[in-house]
Amino acid sequence: MSAPDSVTETPVFFLAGGTGISAETLGNLMLNQFPSVRFRRRKIPFITTPEIARQVVAEMDEAMTDAVTPLVFSTVADEEVRTELVKTKCAFIDLFGSHLDAIERVLHVNASHNRAGLHGLGDPRRYEQRMKAIEYAMEHDDGQSLRNLAQAELILVAPSRCGKTPTSMYLALQHGIRVANYPLVEEDLHSTHLPRPIRDYADRCFGLVSTPARLSQVRSERRPGSTYASLAQCSYELRRAEALYRAHRIPSINSASMSVEEMAAVIMQTRHMSNLA
């Protein structure tokens, strides 16, 4: 099998009847296995009618060349729409249909092919749960609010700029988990005592660290040339944070080279948390 020229970009289309988050996520997981190939990615969400599907197919087929065949990742559930999409000349990877058929065989129940169910509206209770989790994460971001900490299912603890906020929001949005995050500031690091606001919730805490070089780089983008961003300060804060985690048996991970998705998966597995949404 001949590989595409390393300079040539292979067009990639992510198709969906909803927002396209699933198609993009799953498709990119596969594309990441080909680091030597350059891709030109485009997401096309809300393909809800056969007419729209035909327009999309025409656009994708225009990207075909003698040298490159575009890749198409689809999570479209509607059968009429899928019938039109599979007419493309591009390489069509159906991330939904073939797996849905397998599930139907196991459950002995036909799927509803309901578009709304693909983007969270099929179950109002679960959708509302996610929205409440997002509101909670926003209110309790970076220690802004300390009220209702008892309602937190998870408390992320870390020095500034270790990835608390994006991880909190991802866990809330994707999994419906109520997450608070608490920043470890200078006075918190003078001892290995847990800061008073979270002292009673050690069993819900999870620590984040980074590498001194990475943390210094991230902080320098915010406050270049400051003590806050210096390598010495970053090394000190990370060393003290790790000592605090050890003293209270708080599990932790290094966020320096991990994606938000990877961190969320490790946190949920370590804390034995289920996907609520």
TrEMBL record:
InterPro entries: Kinase-pyrophosphorylase, PSRP
EC nos: 2.7.11.33, 2.7.4.28
Keyword check for Nucleotide-binding: yes
Membrane spanning stretches: 12-31
Enzyme class: transferase
One Pfam family per UniProt: Kinase-PPPase
Reactions mediated catalytically: [pyruvate, water dikinase] + ADP = [pyruvate, water dikinase]-phosphate + AMP + H(+); [pyruvate, water dikinase]-phosphate + phosphate + H(+) = [pyruvate, water dikinase] + diphosphate
Keywords: Kinase, Membrane, Nucleotide-binding, Serine/threonine-protein kinase, Transferase, Transmembrane, Transmembrane helix
List of residues binding ADP: A158, P159, S160, R161, C162, G163, K164, T165
GO MF annotations, alphabetized: ADP binding; ATP binding; phosphotransferase activity, phosphate group as acceptor; protein serine/threonine kinase activity
Family membership noted in the UniProt record: Belongs to the pyruvate, phosphate/water dikinase regulatory protein family. PSRP subfamily.
Task performed by this protein: Bifunctional serine/threonine kinase and phosphorylase involved in the regulation of the phosphoenolpyruvate synthase (PEPS) by catalyzing its phosphorylation/dephosphorylation.
Name of the protein: Putative phosphoenolpyruvate synthase regulatory protein
Organism annotation: Intrasporangium calvum (strain ATCC 23552 / DSM 43043 / JCM 3097 / NBRC 12989 / NCIMB 10167 / NRRL B-3866 / 7 KIP)
Lineage of the organism: Bacteria, Bacillati, Actinomycetota, Actinomycetes, Micrococcales
